[in-house]
Amino acid sequence: MTARLLDGKAAAQQILDDIATKVGARVAAGKPRPKLATIIVGENPASALYVRSKQKNARQVGIDSEDHRLPTETSTEQLVELIGVLNRDESVSGILIQQPLPTHIDLFQVVIAVDPVKDVDGFHPFNAGLVAQGLPGGVQPCTPAGIIELLDRGGVRIEGASAVVVGRSNIVGKPTALLLLKRSATVTVCHTRTKNLAAFTKNADILVAAAGKANLITKDMIKPGAAVVDVSANRVDNTQIGDLGPGVEEVAGWLTPNPGGVGPMTRAMLVRNTYDAELRRRP
């Protein structure tokens, strides 16, 4: 068996093209152009690269962007003050605070400082709560939303499927499990401390690997024909690899490349969330 490709690059481009059409129509109608404000604290090269990619995607669809770079020693209070300025700025549709932040910054205070209407990451407790309860109006986090979109576009049946999410982070693992549950999958959440992990993964019709541990999932842990989504971006010898070991493509029915799978979808969902944030403020 050779796995079918869940091509994140192609799917993301289709989403970006759709948003570009909507932005163009909105501007042509005399309505304000959406804008994304990004914030980086410190000198993390990976964070800088991610933000540049996100800004590039925003510009591709006609969304303006503004970049705020703060020194590592920035305090929680100073960061919250900047967020307040952006909350009040009518030209800003959405606010993205690139993580990780320096350890001295209180992440909770930063997350709750963002206006939920401008929360394009879906991290604010108000939005997270709506998503957790399956209620309308909540902003879905970008990576989990991208995973569901990629499965749908790949023709993977979610309803009734046995889904296993390996990873329990607030950014990926937990919300991905909630979105799969909302789509009527039967969901199990595992992690790096799960005993006999293979006993769970071998029964998964859909397997989402998001634990952040290279080669955690080997091919003998995969159910033949399963849809396997490799989320993590682990750096090993200056090369990006996910949580999957070699040979998984020989067993899986569907498989995301890494890189080129979930990453482009995450950025596309961010752009979509920014456009939607503008619609919430100014329909």
Strand order of the largest sheet: 1-11-8-7-5-6
Main sheet record:
6 strands, parallel
Low-confidence stretches: none
Total beta strands? 11
CATH topology of the largest domain, what is it called? Rossmann fold
Compact overview of the structure:
The chain has 283 residues and is an alpha/beta fold.
Write the layout of secondary structure elements.
Elements: E1 4-5, H1 8-28, E2 35-41, H2 45-60, E3 64-70, H3 76-88, E4 94-97, H4 107-113, H5 125-132, H6 142-153, E5 162-166, H7 173-182, E6 186-190, H8 197-201, E7 206-209, E8 227-230, E9 234-236, E10 239-241, E11 254-255, H9 262-281
Parallel strand pairs: 1-11, 2-3, 2-4, 5-6, 5-7, 7-8, 8-11
Antiparallel strand pairs: 9-10
Helix pairs in contact: 1-9, 2-9, 3-4, 6-7, 6-9
